[in-house]
What we know:
Elements: H1 6-18, H2 26-47, H3 56-89, H4 98-102
Helix pairs in contact: 2-3
Amino acid sequence: MAPILPELHAYVRTARTMLPIPRRHVHYVFAVLQSGLTTFAATGIASAPSFGQAQFAMQWLSAWSVAWLLMIPLVLVAAPALRRIAAALTRPDEEPSASTLSRSD
Length: 105
């Protein structure tokens, strides 16, 4: 199956060789990426009323950097509890039965 975005696939493949972070640290990488994206969007939305003013970009980047730095540890601390809550709110996937596997639609 061909990647949807070949450029992104090549970038990720290159990033893997550039950043040899062991898989056991994936939760730290996820926390940095997730908190960065979320705070980027949230501070952009909160800064939207000042869009068009001269200080908009500086205000947004300043708010984003502070929010991101504060959010990374929060995500790391809260993630285990949030995973348990999410698991409690959902049910396990059902294993496909033999009759389901043999049925052809």
